Structures are given as structure tokens and as C-alpha cells.
Amino acid sequence: xxxxxxxxxxxxxxxxxxxxxxxxxxxxxxxxxxxxxxxxxxxxxxxxxxxxxxxxxxxxxxxxxxxxxxxxxxxxxxxxxxxxxxxxxxxxxxxxxxxxxxxxxxxxxxxxxxxxxxxxxxxxxxxxxxxxxxxxxxxxxxxxxxxxxxxxxxxxxxxxxxxxxxxxxxxxxxxxxxxxxxxxxxxxxxxxxxxxxxxxxxxxxxxxxxxxxxxxxxxxxxxxxxxxxxxxxxxxxxxxxxxxxxxxxxxxxxxxxx
Length: 258
Hints:
The chain has 258 residues and is an alpha/beta fold. It has helices at residues 11-18, 22-28, 36-43, 62-65, 78-84, 120-132, 150-155, 171-179, 218-222, 241-252, and strands at 3-4, 30-34, 49-55, 73-76, 93-98, 110-114, 137-141, 164-169, 183-187, 194-195, 205-209, 226-229.
């Protein structure tokens, strides 16, 4: 059963709309997922949905209709739905999900670390590539963009719900992971950089890409086990960070993909 809401000042409406801001996501422990496919991806994942909100002119798909007895579901007029939604032309369906608990640091696997990556679209693309290329997780430094911003959630095309995220990493955390046997491979153009084709990659590794304008920070660069560069034949000064990350991950998995 869908509970009807007709007032823009209703608690459910105000709370859902507030999740577009990081401070309220942290305070309420929830984030916003918008669009039919994104909601269905969230439903088919370990994430816990806390509510579904639909526009009155939207028809629920069977997978969501079947949940009406076990999950709070609400129907609101289109103009109120537009106030909650983050997009200019909303699809008429969104949900709220509980933020996941922080996972323990891994002991093995292959990961990509985003050092101060600030653009939601870039980080969303990196998460999507990591999922597609079979990486075990995506790590984020302290100053990277919040992975639960609505735009970023949409840009992952469901991959956010399929891959493990580690947030708030710093050089102390990296030192712990290195002691556990992880190889830290940093992508940067320095005097000591080797070509990506010359890299000998260990089984347990962390590939690091940096900020869109400034690259990898000096503290992270200073603790790198290997610094690599991506050879470029054209005249472009550099690659977009999401493109660079995808190339690094693809090369890291050479021979594993079929």
C-alpha cells in the first residue's frame, strides 16, 4: 500500500529532500537513490532500503509493488516529487537507503585508490570501471568527493551497489596495508616514473590516481612502491582521471579477462 502525502512540509518529504546535502546524509545515516533502474539495483543488493517515494503519475514496477507490505512506500504529487528529486526531469521514482557500515581493511585483492578526486562524475565512472573490470573495491582519501551524492550514485549505473567502498584513507592507513603485503602503485609523471608496460604487478595491489588538477598528493607519492606513467602518442597534456584509472585497471587485469 502506498501512503499518500499531499503536503510539501511533511516530515518524509523534508527528510528525503535533505539527503541531497552531505551533512544530512551523515546526520540521518541515509542517502538518496533516484530513477527506476537505480532503485531496482539498490533493491537487488545488500543495501537496506528505508523508504520508496513515487510520483502520483508513476506506475510502480512489479518488483516494487510486491514490497508494499514490508517497506514504507509513499505517493506524492508531481510538483512535490520534483522538490525531492535531484534531477531536472525526474523519472518519478526514488528511494532512500541506509548508509553502509565501514568495512574492515582488506587483507588481499586488487583495489583502486582515488586521492582527492573531487568530481562526482569522475568518481562514478571509476567505480563503474572497477566493477566492470573485477576489482575488489574502491578506496577514497579524506578529501575525495562523498560517494553517496545523488549525481554520483546515478553515474555509477548500479555499480555502487556491487562494489565495496573504503573511505577516509590516509598515509597511515596505506602504511598498514603495505605492511600487510599490498603493493602501492601510483600513477604520476615524475623523473622516476616507469612505463605502465614495464610494470610488474603483485597479486595484492592498490592503484592510485589523483586529483583532477593537482594529481596525486606528495604524501601519497612519497610512500609509493612504484610510480607509473601511461604512454601517450598524441599531443594531449594528460588524461582525464576516470580514463586513466580505467586504463590502469584494464592493464592490471591483463590475462584475467576473457
